[in-house]
Structure formats: C-alpha cells, structure tokens
Amino acid sequence: MKKNKDLKVAVVMGSQSDYKTMQLSLKILKKMGIKVETKIISAHRTPERMYEFAKMASKNNIGVIIAGAGGSAHLPGMISAITSIPVLGVPIESKKLKGLDSLLSIAQMPKGIPVGTLAIGEDGAINAALLASAIIAINSPSVKKKLNRWRLSQTKSVKKNLNKNNVKNKFGNNWWR
Length: 177
Known about the structure:
Elements: E1 8-13, H1 19-31, E2 36-40, H2 47-56, E3 62-69, H3 75-82, E4 87-91, H4 100-107, E5 116-117, H5 122-137, H6 141-156
Parallel strand pairs: 1-2, 1-3, 3-4, 4-5
C-alpha cells in the first residue's frame, strides 16, 4: 500500500441488489471527502474480475476495501486472500436467513486471512465506512478532522435529560406513575 494521503476506498459488492445496502457506505465516505471506487464483483460468477481487482488494488491506490456480500458471502474472504490491503466485510441481509449465513461466512475466516467483519445490513455498511475512514485518517489530516466532527455530532445528538412527558408505557400512561 502506498504511503499516500489520497488513498481511495473501494466499495465492492456481489450483485446489483447489494447496492441498496452498500450505498450507505458511499454516502459516509463522500461526507468524509474520501475518493471511492465502486464495482460489482462476484466471487462465484466473476472470479477472474475478483482476482484482477484484488491483485491490482494496491497499484490502483486503494487503501481499504469494503466488500458487501450476501448468501455464502465469499467475496470479502477471497479478496483478503489475494491482497494485504485491509478488507472490511459487510454481510448483506437476505430473505432466507436474514443475513446470518453471510455474517458467519465472513466472520469465520481461517487464521492468516483476516477480514474485519461488521454488523449485518445497513448498520454494517455505515460502520464499515466509518472504520475505513478511521484507517484512511491515519495518513490524512483532512479525513481525521471530518471523522472527529462526525463523532462530535453523534455525541451532541444524545440528549442529557429525559423528557418524561413523551414517555408512555404499554398501557398509554406516563411510565413513572
């Protein structure tokens, strides 16, 4: 990986249908001012494309790869097996097993082939982008500043005091009575 403050984050997904989830990563990365490369790559249907992408990632100035995959979810692990660039896996929620199959496929990597595994679905896509931003921020003061602002806004969004007037129990009464 190049020591370059302008490293890109690649956001790859196994199919077009995964874009609904992975677009959340793209939105966060855009807010952080990070250049992004996006591709559809299937570990099973386009193995040559996957291999070529992973092999060339470092030369293409990619600093982190976010890989969203559903079902058997081999994409993040296969990319990690080919490159030494950090790979963050986002399990895509599925109809059959609600993404649990994807989560286990991504999380249960054999020793020596690490994949940072995030939560299933939208939360995972958002957190993958924030984690990728933190990795890029190591060599980019501008990204670090935006990430710190993001976190401060998260802190400020939490109210200090409970508004008891808006809290009802299951019977429709204020909870403290």
